[in-house]
């Protein structure tokens, strides 16, 4: 018996470890909340995307349990076969309503995860082209991995010519668009940048899309539930109107495992675009539909999201943190959202700070390459509506103490 392959991978894993790039799993013995039990120890956490504190909300657990009693534990099949249950359909209609003021003739399609929604939407759109055509894709530099993978897949299928434009640099994007004589163009961007917390300039991007006759896909994984008066996300926050000439160009992705507190995602757009994604999105077609009980729970989650008291508490926490924290060496990144990263720089340094916080029973993840560019390792601090000001003070004191000691 040869262990050649095992040795090959062991060698690579050792290499990751030596470069401080080997990741490890931590086991959580309690529900998502500001205080969690990790390996038997109570920890104060600032790392989840449970921005509204709904992931352990009793109303959601109750709604999922009711869904389980009504529809059983599994969907039994893919959506196109017999897996598309009534709660899936009700949820899609409710999700479409959340975007109806911003996108004309909107329809929504529910997915098991945001990763799959992004892959499906991008590859379905590019698969609409004939064998002698390609889509010019303009991809934001700091897009999430699932958008990058969708774009790569489209490009490997020879259906896309990809150009990455620098973060927030719409002048550079315009220069690229102005030179492009291709008939088919797609701009792809995060709504809230997941490792930085800043917002895409949606209004200006939509204007460019219109001027240069492009489609625009906005992945609002960290905005849905959080941004806008009703929590409908970045299009609401930016004041986009469904009467805007450009609004039918939008493909909006919202995810439901972050602020919505459960799991899943949706694509919303003009009904024709969404019908095409349903027909051709392989990650939609060739997978088992998620349990109907999840969709049943998500309908309740949409009700809770419409109550702005969760957003008010979250925004209070963000403002309190920004006005109270005083750092000497490290910089707080420019963000008004629940994602409040502190830039450290070297991977080893970011890991060291995260470890020191951990010793003080505070859990903040260090984010390092390849998730972020080289030399931009950071602490990714995230807030929830459920954090108290005392808990935020505890984090601030610990950070200031560690910074002084380094
Ligand atoms: C910007 C962004 N898009 C998409 C996803 C993927 O969503 P999901 O976790 O539902 O697969 C994430 C995070 O997980 C994300 O941060």
TrEMBL record:
Question: GO annotations under biological process?
Answer: biotin biosynthetic process
Q: Where are the transmembrane segments?
A: none
A single Gene Ontology MF term assigned here is:
pyridoxal phosphate binding
Q: Which of UniProt's keywords are assigned here?
A: Pyridoxal phosphate, Transferase
Q: Which residues form the Aminotransferase class I/classII large domain?
A: 43-399
Its required cofactor(s), as named, are: pyridoxal 5'-phosphate
This protein is called what? 8-amino-7-oxononanoate synthase
According to its UniProt entry, this protein's organism is Polynucleobacter cosmopolitanus
């Amino acid at each position: 018996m040869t262990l050649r392959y095992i040795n090959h991978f062991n060698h690579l894993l050792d290499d990751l470890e030596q470069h401080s790039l080997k990741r490890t799993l931590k086991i959580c013995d309690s529900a998502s909340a500001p205080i969690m039990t990790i390996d038997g120890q109570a920890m104060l956490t600032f790392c989840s995307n449970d921005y509204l504190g709904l992931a352990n909300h009793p109303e959601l657990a109750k709604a999922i349990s009711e869904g389980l009693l009504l529809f059983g534990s599994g969907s039994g099949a893919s959506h196109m076969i017999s897996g598309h249950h009534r709660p899936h359909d009700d949820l899609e209609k409710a999700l479409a309503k959340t975007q109806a003021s911003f996108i004309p003739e909107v329809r929504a399609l529910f997915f098991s995860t945001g990763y799959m929604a992004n892959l499906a939407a991008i590859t379905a759109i590019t698969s609409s082209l004939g064998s002698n055509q390609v889509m010019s894709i303009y991809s934001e530099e700091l897009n999430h991995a699932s958008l990058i993978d969708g774009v790569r897949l489209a490009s490997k299928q020879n259906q896309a010519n990809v150009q990455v434009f620098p973060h927030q640099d719409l002048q550079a994007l315009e220069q690229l668009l102005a030179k492009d004589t291709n008939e088919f163009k797609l701009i792809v961007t995060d709504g809230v940048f997941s490792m930085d917390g800043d917002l895409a300039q949606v209004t200006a991007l939509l204007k460019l899309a219109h001027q240069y006759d492009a489609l625009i896909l906005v992945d609002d994984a960290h905005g849905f539930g959080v941004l806008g008066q009703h929590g409908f996300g970045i299009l609401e926050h930016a004041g986009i109107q469904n009467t805007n000439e450009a609004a039918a160009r939008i493909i909006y992705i919202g995810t439901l495992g972050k602020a919505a507190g459960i799991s899943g995602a949706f694509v919303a757009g003009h009904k024709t675009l969404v019908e095409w994604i349903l027909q051709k999105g392989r990650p939609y077609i060739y997978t088992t539909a998620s349990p109907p009980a999840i969709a049943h729970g998500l309908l309740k989650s949409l009700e809770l999201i419409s109550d702005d008291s969760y957003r008010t508490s979250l925004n209070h926490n963000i403002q309190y943190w920004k006005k109270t924290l005083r750092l000497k060496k490290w910089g707080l990144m420019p963000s008004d959202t629940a994602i409040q990263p502190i830039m450290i720089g070297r991977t080893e340094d970011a890991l060291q700070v995260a470890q020191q916080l951990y010793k003080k029973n505070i859990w903040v993840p260090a984010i390092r390459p390849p998730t972020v560019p080289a030399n931009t390792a950071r602490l990714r601090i995230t807030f929830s509506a459920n954090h108290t000001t005392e808990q935020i003070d505890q984090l601030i004191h610990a950070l200031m103490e560690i910074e002084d000691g380094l």
